[in-house]
Structure formats: structure tokens, C-alpha cells
């Protein structure tokens, strides 16, 4: 081995002794032969695995099918399936290894995207029950009576949705929009169009607080349009349910706003044709499917205020059409965000008092409810008591956390909304909650314990009016990653940018929770690091499947055959 040679070293790290056990050095000079590294154990050695892989390849290399169409191999300088497998395991040069891994990544993403597109086409079967022949005059009248002008982005998205509704193919659309971008008005437009055609609609929210907010906001928006609205949640009394359910079933109620209660067995609809699902990432696939099954040809409009990076949009929601509202309403000012250390907490309290004296309200957020011996974080109960001692009786302080009953939560949120409290100390249950336009300040303790996207969602609770709003992050991050997150969220108010940075810093699994999200577990490719390959592979899959009878074209026969086998490309 020569001085200046590039080498690879592998083995098991013993952090306590600061040494690598079972270390092996592989020289990587150009032209030198490579050794592949496999996940060996004490029982199964590297040499054994290598011998078995070699034997398997020698035995079956003659029957390895070609999967990728030739035009893709040529266009992106990829190699055949056979050569890719050979050079992943037995490369003769760095170039051979690089091309093989680039091909493997493209193939994994491409075949995944092909299956997603096939799934999308399966769902897109014509169904006359999905068609909503809405009243254009009523829709235009609704738009003209709004107390504000729709942004260009809202108008564009509204047209996409209305086009879907007037189509024989059931809508399956994801509406993304940053906090405060005006998604609810667009959803109201879709609901009004549905009702104008004599059909029923529902809007499903993850919490009773949010459902009540929607019911109130939509009642105001639909004033003068003779739309009957009902609110159905777990808190709805038995007597109210008995009166409501027959009117839902006979069609007297046009719009039902609620929570999971909307798809219970006892709830029957007259002609449900549109289901709007708010904060859809909080509902599982089965729950959305249950809502869809409540009607025949139900159009689905899923909304989220959590900006989704392209990586997750492609891998998690590739079977949905995506609309994005990327403009904020006129006059809305970005929230001014500042990061300070806990040593400067008193300066934050002084600023907060100044805002309260000006007649404004504030949220104070903390990660925990009660003290934890394992984690040294500020907690809601302790902060609540501290703030009471500082601000009362001049400014009343309220408390809101996840262990309270629904009635207690609603009471606390209602009291804050009605200005009974000047300060609301809360855990993240206020991440999605009622809009309190008078609240212009948020203080977040131990902010480094939240992800970027969650911090962005939290500060979206303020800045809901034309007044300047403020968010103060109090944090003493222990590492560079934590410091970087605090700097990023302080400098940017772009939710899509923050969600992408969150993905890069924390990883896909940490953000989505793989058990919950259904995020695919790729074996070779990394959706974050290899985003460009993922994007191109997805575009090519869309192009191929958009052609009629694409499976019968000679260049796609092997691809279609491989997909029909419905096997993963790479396995553990």
C-alpha cells in the first residue's frame, strides 16, 4: 500500500476503548480490485457471504431480466440490470461502482414510482356519481362577496379543484398551503360548488376544537347562501345526535363538520360527494378510506398546513394530485422570530409584558406537562405557576395541555379566544387550534426539542392579522445540529424550505414516523440525499404511464412483466 492511496476501513467501533474491532482495510486505487462489504456477524463471516453471492450470481446471471427501457439506459447513461448487479458486488474500478450504484438508485425509485402511477390509474376509473355539475353563478357570487380578493395562487388552485369536481373521475387531491395561506376559503369554494349541485359534503378535522372553528368560519362564509350546516363530534349530545342523523340521511343537512364521528356506522349520508379532510397527515389511510366509502364516488380533498418536501410528497402521496398555495394574503406580515438563551429569559418576559400592556395576548409553549426526571425541560405546570406569580392579577394566565378533558381544553381555548386570559401557557396541543387574531406573541421554551416544521406550525398560531407578530425561541442547544435548527427557523418563514431542512437534519423516519406514515423503506437509494434521482425517476414513470396501452409497447414489455410480479426490487 502506497502513501497517498485512498482506502476504505470497516469493522465494529468500540467507542469506550476508541478502537475498531475486526478492522479490515480495502485499498481503493484506480485500477485496483474492489471488495464488497456485507453485514457480517460472528456466525456468518464476510468470506462466507462473498462466496455465496458469487455462487448465486454465477448460477443465475443468465436469467437476470432487463427491466429498464433502453431509452432510459441511454438517456441517463445507466447500465443493464445484469451489469448493475455484477458491478455492485464485484466492481473492478471506482467508476464501475459509481455507475452501478447510480443505476441501482434510479431503478429502485423508478419501479417504486411506476407502482404508484399504476395505483393512481386504478383509482381513476370513471364514475358518474363523482360528477358535480355545480352552479357557476353561485360560485362566482360567493367569490365576489368575499371581504378580500383571492390571491393568484388561491385562484389557480380553486380552478384545479373545480375542474376535478366536474369530471367523471373522483378527485384525490392534496392541498398544501403554509399556515395562514387561505386553504379554508378554497375548501369552502369546493363545498359551495358541491352543495349548489344538490350534493352533500363533509369536512373532517382531527380535533373538536378545529372542527368547531371550521363550523363557525364556514357559517360566516356561507351567510346568505342557504346552506344547512351540522356539527358532529364526540362531544355532540345523544339528543342532538338523534335529531341530526335522520336529517343527514334524508339530505336536509348539506354540510356536516366533524371529527372521526363522521364515518361511524350509525351515520348515513343522502348523497355524499365531497369529503374535505383537514390536517390529513393526522388521519390514517384506513380512516380516509372509511370516509370515502360513506358515499359513491366520493371526491377527496385532503388539506395540510404542514408543508411537505418534494421527497415526501413523491414517496408518501405519489398517488394524489397535488395543489400548492404558495402566496400569503395581502397585508400579512411574517412573524419576527428571535432565538435567545435561557439566561436572557427576563428580557423575553419584559418584551411580553410590553405587548400585554398594548392590549395584545400571548401563547407560552413548553414541551412537557409535568416535571420529568429523565429530561431537564421546562414544563407547562411549572411555567403556568411562574407566570401567574409574575403577571397576575394584572394579566390573567390560562393553562392548556393534552391531559385535560376535551371540555377543559375547549373551555381554556374559548376563554383565551374571548380574552378571559391574556397569556395561555400550553403544550403543543395549540399547534392546530382556533385562530385568535389578537394573539401576536409566542414564547417557546426549550425550542431545540422541537423539529423545524413543528416550530413553524406553532408560531403560525400568531400573526393571524395585519398586526406585527413575534416569536421568541428560548433554547440552550447542546450540539451543532440544535444550534443550526434554531438559526434556520429564526431566519426563514418559508414553511417549504423549513420542512426540507428538517428532513435533511432529522431524517425522513424521525419526521414522519415510519410505522405511522407508510413511508417506503428504500434499500439502496436515499430519498433525501438522492432527491434529484428520485425526481427524474418519478417524472419518467409519469411520462410512460400517461401513454395509452403503455404495457403493450415493445420497449415496455419486460418492465410491465416485472411490475406484474409485484416484487420489491431489493430485499433485506
UniProtKB/TrEMBL annotation:
What is the main EC category here? isomerase
Gene3D superfamilies in UniProt: P-loop containing nucleotide triphosphate hydrolases (3.40.50.300)
Record bears the keyword Plastid: no
What does the record give as the reaction this protein catalyses? ATP + H2O = ADP + phosphate + H(+); Couples ATP hydrolysis with the unwinding of duplex DNA by translocating in the 3'-5' direction
Helicase C-terminal domain location:
344-504
Keywords in alphabetical order, please: ATP-binding, DNA damage, DNA recombination, DNA repair, DNA-binding, Helicase, Hydrolase, Nucleotide-binding
SUPFAM superfamilies, A to Z:
P-loop containing nucleoside triphosphate hydrolases
Q: What is its EC number?
A: 5.6.2.4
GO terms (molecular function) for this protein are: 3'-5' DNA helicase activity; ATP binding; ATP hydrolysis activity; DNA binding
InterPro entries registered for this protein in UniProt: ATP-dep_DNA_helicase_RecG, DEAD/DEAH_box_helicase_dom, Helicase_ATP-bd, Helicase_C-like, P-loop_NTPase, RecG/Mfd, RecG_dom3_C
Has keyword DNA-binding? yes
Task: Domain (Helicase ATP-binding): give its ranges.
Answer: 164-325
Q: Name one GO biological process term.
A: DNA repair
The entry's family comment says: Belongs to the helicase family. RecG subfamily.
Q: What does this protein do?
A: Plays a critical role in recombination and DNA repair. Helps process Holliday junction intermediates to mature products by catalyzing branch migration. Has replication fork regression activity, unwinds stalled or blocked replication forks to make a HJ that can be resolved. Has a DNA unwinding activity characteristic of a DNA helicase with 3'-5' polarity.
According to UniProt, the name of this protein is ATP-dependent DNA helicase RecG
Organism classification: Bacteria, Bacillati, Bacillota, Bacilli, Lactobacillales
Amino acid at each position: 500500500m502506497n502513501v497517498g492511496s485512498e482506502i476504505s476501513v470497516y469493522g465494529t467501533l468500540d467507542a469506550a476503548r476508541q478502537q475498531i474491532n475486526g478492522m479490515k482495510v480495502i485499498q481503493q486505487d484506480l485500477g485496483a480490485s474492489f471488495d464488497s462489504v456485507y453485514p457480517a456477524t460472528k456466525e456468518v463471516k464476510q468470506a462466507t457471504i462473498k462466496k455465496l453471492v458469487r455462487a448465486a450470481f454465477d448460477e443465475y446471471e443468465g436469467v437476470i431480466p432487463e427491466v429498464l427501457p433502453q431509452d432510459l439506459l441511454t438517456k441517463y447513461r445507466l447500465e443493464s440490470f445484469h451489469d448493475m448487479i455484477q458491478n455492485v458486488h464485484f466492481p473492478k474500478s471506482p467508476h464501475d461502482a459509481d455507475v452501478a450504484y447510480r443505476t441501482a438508485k434510479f431503478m429502485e425509485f423508478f419501479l417504486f414510482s411506476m407502482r404508484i402511477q399504476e395505483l393512481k390509474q386504478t383509482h381513476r376509473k370513471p364514475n358518474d356519481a363523482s360528477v358535480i355539475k355545480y352552479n357557476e353563478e353561485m360560485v362566482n357570487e360567493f367569490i365576489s362577496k368575499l371581504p378580500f380578493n383571492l390571491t393568484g395562487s388561491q385562484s389557480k388552485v380553486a380552478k384545479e379543484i373545480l375542474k376535478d369536481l366536474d369530471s367523471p373521475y373522483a378527485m384525490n387531491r392534496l392541498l398544501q398551503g403554509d399556515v395562514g395561506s387561505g386553504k379554508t376559503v378554497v375548501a369552502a369554494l369546493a363545498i359551495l360548488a358541491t352543495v349548489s349541485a344538490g350534493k352533500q359534503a363533509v369536512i373532517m378535522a382531527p380535533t373538536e376544537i378545529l372542527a368547531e372553528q371550521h363550523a363557525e368560519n364556514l357559517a360566516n362564509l356561507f351567510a346568505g347562501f342557504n346552506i344547512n350546516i351540522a356539527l358532529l363530534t364526540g362531544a355532540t349530545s345523544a339528543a342532538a345526535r338523534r335529531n341530526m342523523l335522520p336529517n343527514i340521511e334524508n339530505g336536509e343537512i348539506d354540510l356536516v363538520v366533524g371529527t372521526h364521528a363522521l364515518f361511524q356506522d350509525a351515520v348515513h349520508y343522502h348523497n355524499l360527494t365531497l369529503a374535505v379532510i383537514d390536517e390529513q397527515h393526522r388521519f390514517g389511510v384506513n380512516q380516509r378510506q372509511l370516509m370515502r366509502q360513506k358515499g359513491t364516488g366520493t371526491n377527496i380533498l385532503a388539506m395540510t398546513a404542514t408543508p411537505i418536501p418534494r421527497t415526501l410528497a413523491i414517496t408518501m402521496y405519489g398517488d394524489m394530485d397535488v395543489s400548492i398555495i404558495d402566496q400569503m394574503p395581502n397585508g400579512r406580515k411574517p412573524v419576527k422570530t428571535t432565538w435567545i438563551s435561557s439566561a436572557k429569559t427576563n428580557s423575553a418576559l419584559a418584551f411580553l409584558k410590553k405587548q400585554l400592556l398594548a392590549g395584545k395576548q400571548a401563547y407560552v409553549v413548553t414541551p412537557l406537562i409535568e416535571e420529568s426526571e429523565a429530561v431537564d425541560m421546562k414544563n407547562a405546570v411549572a411555567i403556568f405557576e411562574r407566570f401567574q406569580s409574575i403577571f397576575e392579577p394584572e394579566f390573567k394566565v390560562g393553562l392548556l395541555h393534552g391531559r385535560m378533558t376535551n371540555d377543559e381544553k375547549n373551555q381554556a381555548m374559548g376563554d383565551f379566544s374571548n380574552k378571559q386570559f391574556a397569556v395561555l401557557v400550553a403544550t403543543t396541543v395549540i399547534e392546530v387550534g382556533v385562530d385568535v387574531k389578537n394573539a401576536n406573541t409566542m414564547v417557546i421554551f426549550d425550542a431545540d426539542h422541537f423539529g423545524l416544521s413543528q416550530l413553524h406550525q406553532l408560531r403560525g398560531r400568531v400573526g393571524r392579522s395585519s398586526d406585527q407578530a413575534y416569536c421568541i425561541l428560548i433554547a440552550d442547544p447542546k450540539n451543532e445540529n440544535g444550534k443550526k435548527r434554531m438559526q434556520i427557523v429564526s431566519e426563514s418563514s418559508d414553511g417549504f424550505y423549513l420542512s426540507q431542512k428538517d428532513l435533511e437534519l432529522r431524517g425522513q423516519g424521525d419526521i414522519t414516523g415510519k410505522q405511522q406514515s407508510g413511508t417506503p423503506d428504500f434499500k439502496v437509494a436515499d430519498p433525501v440525499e438522492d432527491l434529484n434521482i428520485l425526481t427524474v425517476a418519478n417524472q419518467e414513470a409519469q411520462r410512460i404511464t400517461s401513454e395509452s396501452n403503455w404495457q403493450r409497447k415493445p420497449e415496455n414489455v419486460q418492465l410491465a412483466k416485472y411490475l406484474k410480479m409485484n416484487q420489491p426490487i431489493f430485499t433485506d
